[in-house]
Amino acid sequence: MIAKTFTTAAAVIALTATPVLAQESSIDRLPASVDAQGEQLEGQNGIFIALLAAAAIIAGIIIAASDDEEPLPTSP
Question: What's the per-residue H, E or C state across the chain?
Fold first, then answer.
């Protein structure tokens, strides 16, 4: 009975203290510096991924629409 009460009290304290400890208003956060080299490569990866996705979709359509010479088995 004492262990159950102790466990319950510890859980209540932990659940109550967690938001208070997580809130830290005394720290002033500054934005990170931006590297000029990183801005030059901003849009290039998106175009490559879009072209790769389009090629995969087209390849999937071609494979699905291709006529196989072997007929598919049917149930009697």
Answer: CHHHHHHHHHHHHHHHHHHHHHCCCCCCCCCCCCCHHHHHCCCHHHHHHHHHHHHHHHHHHHHHHCCCCCCCCCCC
Closest CA to 59 of 51, 70, 49: 51
Output the CA torsion sign for 41, 43, 47, 53: positive
Return d(Cα 17, Cα 7) in angstroms, integer: 15
pTM: 0.36
Looking up tokens 């109550």 gives: 16
Q: What is the pLDDT of residues 25-51, one digit of tens each?
A: 556 667 777 666 655 555 567 778 888
